[in-house]
Design goal:
Butyryl-CoA Dehydrogenase, subunit A, domain 3; single chain; alpha+beta; binds coenzyme a persulfide; Butyryl-Coa Dehydrogenase, subunit A, domain 1; Butyryl-CoA Dehydrogenase, subunit A, domain 2; 13 helices; three-stranded mixed β-sheet
Length: about 375
């Protein structure tokens, strides 16, 4: 449901203030401790930030995509680790249920995801199956009124915190491709489910990933997402279409934050007797970043508005993810350059963003996968 403009502005203003007053001052500490304090999580819960995209009837804010991306522009203005904690409940950790779940599954899990009582996680990637998601090997074999799950999922965001996994597993081992895959809702604590050690990453400290290991893990047959087997790959693709737009919006937010910081630094820092912002070579970097962030913002809003109007936006979502994740990489690189030596020193935080944004070009589909999705859709549309 779309909010009235005044309520939306109020929400955006609240998020903006929360980000600037509560999250930005904590960025350094979260990176140092690799942990988001529980008090901050409680504040996020109280603001409804875990349920932005979950329909109102299940306890969320029920934002339209064009509204959600505007919130994501704001959430992007701080360390991506904060957004990551909220991101799975709003995106890949809940949307499988929203899009394809049975009514009782929606009632059982969506209110708890919307309130932030539980964290949702999306278990698709495996040691031997990343970009080639349809090649996944984890199996879920029907045994009476249960499925028995075996396999390992890798780099799973929020796995250590998760209360619920949307798991993609092969229910038909004879069918090697996408059609043999089904999705399941598996609760943390299920016997035979184990979380590996937290991965050590290049950036985004405070956001955790880990392996999720299934060893003869028995899940009830009712854990199958939806009402028939073989639909799991399509569910995953639909979830990713939506997630890619959200990530693109976060990239725009981070870029805008870095541009603001770079401009402030350039106007204050003096060399050759003048603020470095007076120099045209610095101006060129600021201008390129500003123009590219604007292009990214416009793409995201256009794609989100089209999606809300019922259009299929797989191509637009992939285009936005491709452009915005690459764009924020360039913006972060220029931010380091504008800050000079300070850009390389941890105290200023710019180098942390430089490392943090590298992930955007990889997860929820690498840039190369976005290119492939865009081109395949172009060829398919032209041939039809
Ligand atoms: N929405 C709905 N259905 C979709 C879809 C989408 N966006 N994309 C594909 N499908 C359907 C296809 O229509 C096809 O259905 P049919 O068998 O009924 O024709 C089925 O899914 C298989 O599609 P396809 O043949 O295109 O699958 P491929 O194995 O060739 O893989 C890519 C397609 C590479 C695009 C896919 O594997 C992918 O997105 N990989 C990246 C995964 C990823 O993002 N991982 C990140 C980690 S998760 S955070």
């Amino acid at each position: 449901m779309a909010l009235d403009p005044e309520t939306l502005e109020h929400l955006l203003d609240t998020v903006r203030r929360f980000v600037r007053e509560r999250l930005v001052p904590m960025e350094h500490k979260i990176a140092e401790d690799d942990e988001i304090p529980s008090t901050l999580l409680d504040e996020m819960r109280a603001l409804g930030l875990f349920g932005l995209s979950i329909p109102e009837e299940y306890g969320g804010l029920g934002l339209a995509m064009a509204e959600e991306v505007r919130v994501a522009f704001e959430l992007g203005q701080t360390s991506p680790a904060f957004r990551s904690m909220l991101g799975t409940n709003n995106g890949i950790g809940s949307q499988g249920i929203v899009l394809d779940g049975r009514e009782e599954q929606k009632r059982a899990y969506l209110p708890r995801l919307a309130s932030g009582e539980i964290i949702g996680s999306f278990a698709l990637t495996e040691p031997d199956s990343g970009s080639d998601a349809a090649a996944l090997k984890t199996t879920a074999i029907r045994d009476g009124d249960h499925y028995v799950v075996n396999g390992t999922k890798r780099f799973i965001t929020n796995a250590p915190e998760a209360g619920l996994f949307t798991l993609m597993a092969r229910t038909d081992p004879e069918e090697k491709g996408a059609r043999g895959i089904s999705a399941f809702l598996v609760e943390a604590g299920a016997s035979g489910l184990r979380i590996g050690p937290v991965d050590r990453k290049m950036g985004q400290r405070g956001a955790h990933t880990a392996d999720v290991i299934f060893e003869d893990c028995r899940v009830p047959a009712s854990a199958l997402l939806g009402d028939r087997e073989g639909q799991g790959f399509k569910t995953a693709m639909k979830v990713l279409d939506r997630g890619r737009l959200h990530i693109a919006a976060v990239c725009v937010g981070v870029a805008e934050r870095l541009i603001r910081d770079s401009l402030a630094y350039a106007m204050e820092r003096k060399q050759f007797g003048r603020p470095i912002a007076d120099f045209q070579l610095i101006q060129a970097m600021l201008a390129d970043s500003r123009a590219e962030a604007y292009a990214g913002r416009a793409m995201v809003l256009d794609a989100a508005t089209r999606r809300d109007a019922g259009e299929t936006v797989a191509t637009e979502a992939a285009s936005a993810k491709l452009f915005c994740s690459e764009m924020v990489g360039r913006v972060a690189d220029r931010a380091v350059q504008i800050h000079g030596g300070a850009g390389y020193i941890a105290d200023y935080g710019v180098e942390r963003f430089y490392r943090d944004v590298r992930l955007f070009r990889i997860y929820e589909g690498t840039s190369q996968i976005q290119q492939l999705v865009i081109a395949r859709n172009m060829i398919r549309d032209a041939a039809s």
